[in-house]
Amino acid sequence: MAGPRWELGPAKEPLGLVRGLQWFFSIFAFATCGGYGGTVSFRVSCDGQPNVTVTAPFAYPFRLNQAIFTPSLTNLCNKTWPADVHLVGDFSSSAQFFVTVAVFAFLYSMAALALYLGYLHLYRGAGGKLPLVDFLATVAFSFLWLVSSSAWAKALTDVKTSTGAPLPKCHPPAVACFPAGVTPMGSLNVSVVFGFLNLVLWAGSSWFVYKETNFHRPAAPPTAAAPAAM
């Protein structure tokens, strides 16, 4: 195997430039989703007594059915709530799928960029095998970004619905419950935007990778006929 020939030329071409953008934006996709943490809070008042604030913390991967309000509602309002109250829903599958696709896209784009910058002579001189593998991987990641971003966008809508739901068994004036706030989910909204942005980048880059395959190479010109002997 020939040694690397490091040069920045391919990074200025669409093939390498778009790979660099994919690497950059995939970081933001999994960071904005996987790094989120928030709370849901209510103020509970029993028969006009002073308010007690109860809070349920939640975070990635958004198993909301494990987010329990503390202090325990079972100790309030003459045991109006016989058991601990938690949020509703488990959205971990969509969130983890999205983050997993982003992480693997980050790793692949980094490896592909290193291949372009150091081994472009082997990439283009391997009989079309490496460009073909690169093309198939790019198409596969485009599909994965489409599915994971759509699933995560739907799950995020459900997360907002669950965290915005009222507490059960609140019947004023005996038991009054007032929303005290939900941590803003702006970073989660941004993660969805980055997901579909990555979809556009990967789908668009498939054309540039396709141009490197044998399918796009022009056919060899026909050989000129030999002149007839005199």
Search tags:
230 residues; mainly alpha; 3-stranded antiparallel sheet; 3 strands; 51% helix; 11% strand
| Nearest-integer average pLDDT | 87
**Oligomeric grouping of the chains:** single chain
The largest β sheet comes out as: 3 strands, antiparallel
Question: Beta fraction of the residues?
Answer: 5-15%
Give the H and E element order: HHEEHHEH
Percent helix: 40-55%
Molecular structure report:
By secondary structure, the chain is mainly alpha-helical. It has helices spanning 9-12, 14-34, 92-123, 129-163, 186-210, and strands spanning 37-46, 52-59, 175-182. Strand 1 (37-46) and strand 2 (52-59) form a beta hairpin. It is rod-shaped, with a radius of gyration of 27 Å.
Summarize, please.
This protein has five helices and three strands; from the N terminus they run H-H-E-E-H-H-E-H.
Q: What's the arrangement of secondary structure elements?
A:
Elements: H1 9-12, H2 14-34, E1 37-46, E2 52-59, H3 92-123, H4 129-163, E3 175-182, H5 186-210
Antiparallel strand pairs: 1-2, 1-3
